[in-house]
Amino acid sequence: MNALARAPITTHILDTERGKPAVGVSVELSQLHQGSWTVVNQGQTNSDGRVEQWQQPLTLATGMYQLVFATDAYFKQLGVASFYPEVNIRFYVAKPQEHYHVPLLLSAHGYSTYRGT
């Protein structure tokens, strides 16, 4: 894979309390296989709060995927008490040839998500 090519699944975290990207958050990507979640990749948000490349090349297949964001460690390093120790976002990949961008809008006591572009 071209090092500059965008991964088929990307994410972005905006810390809505601070109005800044959430930097250094560990993210796991899993896929559902026969009723069990299997970690297929890992990443960490960059200085813009994005995971645009994973540790390993990623090829998609149709199926259920899950992003797990390690939010507890992020808020602890900021000295902020958080209600959610992690955020799990599950989504369905219907067309593996498409790009899937899954943003996370995050605060210490809430979060929301949507399918981005």
Automatic annotation (TrEMBL):
<feature type="binding site">
    <location>
        <position position="114"/>
    </location>
    <ligand>
        <name>substrate</name>
    </ligand>
</feature>
<dbReference type="InterPro" id="IPR036817">
    <property type="entry name" value="Transthyretin/HIU_hydrolase_sf"/>
</dbReference>
<feature type="binding site">
    <location>
        <position position="50"/>
    </location>
    <ligand>
        <name>substrate</name>
    </ligand>
</feature>
<protein>
    <recommendedName>
        <fullName>5-hydroxyisourate hydrolase</fullName>
        <ecNumber>3.5.2.17</ecNumber>
    </recommendedName>
</protein>
<comment type="subunit">
    <text>Homotetramer.</text>
</comment>
<dbReference type="InterPro" id="IPR023416">
    <property type="entry name" value="Transthyretin/HIU_hydrolase_d"/>
</dbReference>
<dbReference type="InterPro" id="IPR023418">
    <property type="entry name" value="Thyroxine_BS"/>
</dbReference>
<dbReference type="GO" id="GO:0033971">
    <property type="term" value="F:hydroxyisourate hydrolase activity"/>
</dbReference>
<comment type="similarity">
    <text>Belongs to the transthyretin family. 5-hydroxyisourate hydrolase subfamily.</text>
</comment>
<comment type="function">
    <text>Catalyzes the hydrolysis of 5-hydroxyisourate (HIU) to 2-oxo-4-hydroxy-4-carboxy-5-ureidoimidazoline (OHCU).</text>
</comment>
<keyword id="KW-0659">Purine metabolism</keyword>
<dbReference type="InterPro" id="IPR000895">
    <property type="entry name" value="Transthyretin/HIU_hydrolase"/>
</dbReference>
<dbReference type="GO" id="GO:0006144">
    <property type="term" value="P:purine nucleobase metabolic process"/>
</dbReference>
<keyword id="KW-0378">Hydrolase</keyword>
<feature type="domain" description="Transthyretin/hydroxyisourate hydrolase">
    <location>
        <begin position="5"/>
        <end position="116"/>
    </location>
</feature>
<dbReference type="Pfam" id="PF00576">
    <property type="entry name" value="Transthyretin"/>
</dbReference>
<dbReference type="InterPro" id="IPR014306">
    <property type="entry name" value="Hydroxyisourate_hydrolase"/>
</dbReference>
<feature type="binding site">
    <location>
        <position position="12"/>
    </location>
    <ligand>
        <name>substrate</name>
    </ligand>
</feature>
